[in-house]
Amino acid sequence: MDWLSRLLDMTPVRGQLDIRCSYGAPWRIDEAPAGAGEIPYHVVLAGSALLDDPAGGPPQALEAGDILLIPDGGAHVLHDGSGLPAQAARKSEQLNLVVSENDGGGDRLELLCGRFVLAAPHDRLLRDYLSSRLIVRTGVQRNSAADSATRAPLLDLLSLMRDESSADRLGGRAMLGALSTALFALTLRTASESASAPTGWLALAAQPRLQPALMALFHQPAHPWTLPELARQCHMSRATLARQFQETLGRSPSDLLTDIRMSLAANMLEKTSASTGAVAESVGYQSEAAFQRVFKQRMGMTPARWRRRAP
User: 207-309 has which fold?
Assistant: First the structure.
């Protein structure tokens, strides 16, 4: 199993499409912070939009075919850039989603808005290794045939989402949910294959020399991995491995190993009746006390409390 499949297997994601917007200028969307375990997303089907920079920098332009993810779940603002008061929007409940429209003029924005739902606090394994704002561009013309081939499956998926969201069809809500779920994995894959992949998980494709260490951590998390062992896996020095991990993922190999172990342990506590000691041993801890201490630090509660909260 490749690292992205392994990651998504450990942290299952469920997609949900909530609203289809059709706006003429002037328009503005103010999104409040997302709920726990939610990553908002927006897909620009037609028209354009500006995304405000929460740090006060210049806004980022979004065009048709662009996909925006907000991994940190923070509040965000999209608008047409005119600075004028937004035209009032009206919402109508359709069979499978909500449609929001206004009477503005000019080129209309067609936008899909939804969210990816993860089981909190499992979501931290994804959130902590993704940038706070992620934009994947599929509509920009490029000269590279390889890049076009990379984007083709995502474009096909967006076409299906456009069709399903434009008409009330039997099973439409289930289809939109399934397509949204696929959108998450396909967006991450496309972003990781981009030449401009950001830091974090998505930058790993640009660092193939780190792949052996990453696969070792994912597939043998109970092994007492040391930096020299992982460096040998990658045929590089300890210092080079540590530096490249920090530059790429923003974390050390030991930090990543701990996060993987805690996510696997949380899944075992939820889904099995194994004792805490057995769970600790299965993810590489000989001391149950040490495991409990790290689990509480990373997951925010004791293993026993985590198990009690499981549905």
Answer: Arc Repressor Mutant, subunit A (1.10.10)
Cα separations in angstroms, 237 against 48, 205, 241: 47, 20, 6
Radius of gyration of the chain measured on its C-alpha atoms: 21
pLDDT digits (tens, 9 = 90+) for 126-154: 877 888 889 999 875 444 454 566 788 89
Q: Measuring CA to CA, how many Å separate 125 from each of 10, 118, 200, 243, 309?
A: 9, 10, 11, 21, 19
Question: Which residues, other chains included, contact 68 with Cβ-Cβ below 8 Å and sequence gap of 6+?
Answer: 41, 42, 43, 44, 51, 62, 133, 134, 135
User: Which CATH topology does 3-197 take?
Assistant: Jelly Rolls (2.60.120)
What pLDDT sits at residue 143? 45
Q: State the pLDDT at residue 197.
A: 58
Catalogue the long-range contacts made by 178-181 (C-beta closer than 8 Å, 24 or more residues apart): 178/15, 179/15, 179/17, 180/15, 180/16, 180/17, 180/41, 180/114, 180/116, 181/13, 181/14, 181/15, 181/116
DSSP 171: T
